[in-house]
Amino acid sequence: EARHAYSCDTHIGDLVLRGAARVAPDASGESIADAGRAILGSETFRLGHAPGRDVLLVLRTAPEIEATAWRASGVTRHALAFGTSRLSLRVGGRVAASAEVQPREGWDEIVLVVPSAVLTGSETELHVTGRYASFRYWAYQ
Asked: Which is it for the CA torsion 15, 18, 24, 27, positive or negative?
């Protein structure tokens, strides 16, 4: 996350949400453990890439996650479920890709195509907004 200048803005009212681990079976039935965040807001990160080529951005997601929050009284946990939601990926303030998703049981992936026309130089800041569970990103070019 530090290498990609990752940050997120995710909260319910004034309650800032933190990450949590999740274990669930993949499509083959094998259990997969991953850590992630409930995103009720946005994520921002920098992505290195070759100029002149689209990027396939893959996000591991799930239909539910347990979010944690820190309060003066201690850590609280909140089970959150996600129905159909819309994700928007912005580059330079403009929508570069979007998707409407209904995560499948277990683990799921969302694929966003980032067009080469919005990728300037060899590194670009991406801003993803929506309501979803975010576990891991992969980028392919």
From this structure: positive
Q: Would you call 24 exposed, middle or buried from its count of C-beta atoms within 10 A (0-12, 13-18, 19+)?
A: middle
Name the residue with tokens 């800032």: 16
Alpha helices in 79-134 (DSSP H): none
- Could you report the per-residue pLDDT of 1-47, keeping only the tens digit for each? 889 999 999 988 888 888 899 999 988 899 999 999 999 999 999 99
- Please give the Cα distance from 129 to 39 (Å, whole number): 8
Q: What is the pTM of this model?
A: 0.90
The angle formed by the CA atoms of residues 58, 60 and 65, to the nearest 5 degrees, is 155
State how far the Cα of 122 lies from the Cα of 110, in Å rounded to an integer: 24
